Amino acid sequence: MIALALFALIAVAGFTLLDGVLRTQSATDTRLARMSQVQRAMLVVSTDLDQITGGLAGGGSDLSLVKADLSEAPVVVRYGLDGQTLVRVVAGPQGERTQRLIDGVESVRWSFHRRRGDWLDAWPQITEPVAVAAQGAGIIVNTTPVMDPNAGVSAVALDLTLSGFDGRPGATLRRVASIPLMDAGQQGLQP
């Protein structure tokens, strides 16, 4: 009888240990999958920002940029929040496709770092008047804005607030990517 009770205690202890190991493995797998999803999304965002060839615009939860595809054709890439999912929409010669990057996103905020050191919540707008010059009998309008060289945007930041697991508080992640020095005249896009 004592031997039977000892075997029962050993069986219960073994089952409890196995259950704890399996729960820990499941939680670890969930966190690793989430981390992998976040790393892939940040890589996609960084790659797009590294490949800017045209305009850039944005603010709040939206960002639009122009880059070249493999055939050097211009492609418009837009980032935004769809419910609780960060999405990337690519529109180019091949049509438009939507890619879900990260699920469980509470908020997204894009900001822009100017060369002079401050951060802006939206892409800077042109404030200087457009220069007009007379040439011969006609009038030529110079559409190239002239900005202070210290006002150009040199970096883009993405702040993501992710929802937590099992009712735990989420985390806010920040990715800052440097871009070629751009000014508001290189905008040409609507976020």
Protein described:
With 191 residues, the protein is of the alpha+beta class. It has one domain. It has 1 helix and 11 strands; from the N terminus they run αβββββββββββ. The protein has one helix at residues 2-50; strands at 52-59, 62-68, 74-82, 85-92, 95-103, 105-114, 119-120, 132-135, 138-141, 153-162, 172-182. It has a 5-stranded antiparallel beta sheet, covered by helices on one side. It has a 4-stranded antiparallel beta sheet with strand order 7-6-10-11, covered by helices on one side. The longest helix has 49 residues, at 2-50.
Q: Given the structure, what is the number of helices?
A: 1
In angstroms, what separates the terminal alpha carbons? Answer: 76 Å
Rg, alpha carbons: 26 Å
On the 0 to 100 scale, the average pLDDT is 79
List keywords for this structure.
191 residues, alpha+beta, 5-stranded antiparallel sheet, 4-stranded antiparallel sheet, 1 helix, General secretion pathway protein J, Pilin-like
Outline the secondary-structure elements.
Blueprint (H helix, E strand, L loop, with lengths): L1 H49 L1 E8 L2 E7 L5 E9 L2 E8 L2 E9 L1 E10 L4 E2 L11 E4 L2 E4 L11 E10 L9 E11 L9
Antiparallel strand pairs: 1-2, 2-3, 3-4, 4-5, 6-7, 6-10, 8-9, 10-11
